[in-house]
Structure formats: C-alpha cells, structure tokens
Amino acid sequence: MKYIGLIGSILLLVACLNDKNTPLPNQTVVVDTSSSIVVPVSPVSPANTTCSPDTVYFQQTILPLITSNCAMSGCHDAISKKDGVILTDYTNIMREVKVASPASSDLYKCLNETGEDRMPPAPAAEFSLANKALVLKWIQQGAKNNSCLASAANCDTTGISFSASVFPTLKTYCTGCHSGTTPSAGIDLNSYAAVKVYAANGRLMGSINHTAGYKPMPSSTSKLGVCEISQIKAWIAEGTLNN
Ligand code: HEC
Fold it and tell me: How far apart are CA 169 and CA 180, in angstroms?
C-alpha cells in the first residue's frame, strides 16, 4: 500500500510539472502573467451611479480579478479544477470563502502563502498588495454577489477614449488570460496595436457580444456590462483611435 501511495505522489508530481512546463495541445497556460495583475477600475463615472466608493463589488472587481488570474485552462476552470477548486463563478468562489473569518478564507490565504502553495503559482506574479486588500475587504463586507453598473440609459458613448475607457475594461476582464508569453488562443490584448487588430476583424465585438460563431468572452457564463459593451462598440465606430 505504501508503494501505491508513493507511485501516486510521483504521478501527481509529474502531472503538475507537466502542467506548468509543457501545455498540452489546445491547452493554454499563462506563464508570464507579470502584466496580468489587474488594476481594478471604476467601470462608470461616479456621477452616473449610486456606486459606493467604499464598497468592493463582486461583479466588477472580484470576479474579473479571480477569473482572469486563476480560472484559465490548466488551473481553476471547470474542466481542469486543480485541487478540486473551481473559480469561475460566485457559487464556486464562495466555497473558498469564510464570511465569519475573512482572513482565514482559502481564497485570501493562498495569495499570501510562500513557495509552491502560493496562488497564483510562480512564474505568475504575486497579487499586488492592493488586489490582496480588495479580496479581503470584499469578504469582510460580507462576500456578497453585488454589482454596480451604469445602465444603458446613463451610459456615455460619445468620444470614447481607448486609454481611459476601453483599455481599462480589457485590463480588468481580459488581459489576465490574453497577455504574457503564452496568451490564451494566441491572442494578446495588452496593447493598442493588438486590440486594433481584433477590433478590425470583428472578433472583439463577436466575442464580447456572445455572437453565434465566436467564443463567448470573458466566458460563457459572464458577459461585460451593457455600458462597457456599448462603449467598446462606439470606440470602434468612431474609428478605433489611439486616444
Ligand atoms: C479565463 C481566461 C480568459 C479570459 C478572462 C478571457 N479570455 Fe478570451 N479566450 C480565452 C481562451 C482559452 C480562448 C480560446 C477559446 C477556444 O478556442 O475555445 C479565447 C478566445 C478569445 C477570442 C477569439 C474568439 C473567436 O471566436 O475568434 C477573442 C477575440 C477573445 N478571447 C477576447 C477576449 C476578451 C475581449 C476578453 C475580455 C472581455 C477575454 N477574451 C477574456 C481565454 C480567456
């Protein structure tokens, strides 16, 4: 029996090493995610909404932060579910959260571990202090499935700026997977020039609109807000400027 355990451990070790070093065909593993640490952005101007600046919203901040840094293929998506952990949606993320004891929640603790226990694991960059603080604060505020979005009615879609609107949205929801040395699907969205290519070939709008024939992004179960989609659409219609 001892040997079976040992063989099991070796197989597990090999499997893990394989995961890290040699992605299987069709498998995308983000190796260099130094550029993927998301700086949460306020998706709407405060004047437009009743969003509280002191509240950490799950839908706009925590979900994109966790999915784009942890739920990629080979890690904690529904298919790979490393260590049985799925981090693609609220229900599954809550399995790693202890509302009564925020700092001992696995979702938070793993960010601060050392060595191979740290998540996301090296060579991915450690979460910034600001992002760790957001995760903790969200749990301390009750780990709610809360959202604060501009409605279609109060969404400003004129003179949309790439640097002030479009890029921050992509940084929040997309570049965790679509940047670094092995971006998902070979698509890097971490620069104006690259985004322009996918804006021009229709794949950017097709994927975020969940149009038939395109892979739904950021995932089949979550969609950008109505206002964010309208702003990206308007930015393309206005000439895809580097403004
Ligand atoms: C969790 C990782 C992840 C996140 C987050 C993510 N993507 Fe993707 N993306 C992928 C993978 C993996 C594929 C390839 C899908 C496939 O072939 O099944 C892909 C494919 C695409 C494609 C090609 C779609 C097509 O049908 O041609 C585009 C465009 C794209 N993503 C844009 C985005 C945008 C824009 C966002 C943010 C709103 C985003 N992605 C967020 C992993 C991700």
Answer: 18
CA distances from 180 to 118, 123, 124, 134, 151 (A): 20, 11, 10, 23, 33
Residue 22: what residue type? T
Q: How far does residue 30's CA lie from ligand 1's centre (Å)?
A: 13
To test the ligand 1 pocket, which listed residue (41, 65, 198, 207) has its Cβ within 8 A of the most ligand atoms?
207
CB-based contact 210:137 (threshold 8 Å): no
- Kindly list the distances between the CA atom of residue 18 and the CA atoms of 23, 33, 73, 78, 177, in Å, as whole numbers in the listed order: 7, 18, 14, 19, 19
Ligand 1 centroid to 205 CA: how many Å?
A: 11
Single-letter residue type at 112: N
Contact 161, 175 (CB under 8 A): no
Q: Minimal CA–CA distance to 191: which of 202, 182, 180, 203?
A: 180
Contact 177, 30 (CB under 8 A): yes
Q: Is the CB of 214 under 6 A from ligand 1?
A: yes
Give per-residue pLDDT as tens, 49-103: 567 889 999 998 999 999 989 998 889 999 999 999 999 999 999 999 999 999 9
Q: Which residues contact 68 (CB under 8 A, 6 or more apart)?
A: 36, 38, 172, 173, 174, 175, 176, 177, 218
208 C-beta closer than 6 A to ligand 1: yes
Listed residue (205, 166, 165, 203) closest to 185, CA to CA? 203
The rounded distance, in Å, linking the Cα atoms of 62 and 57 is 7
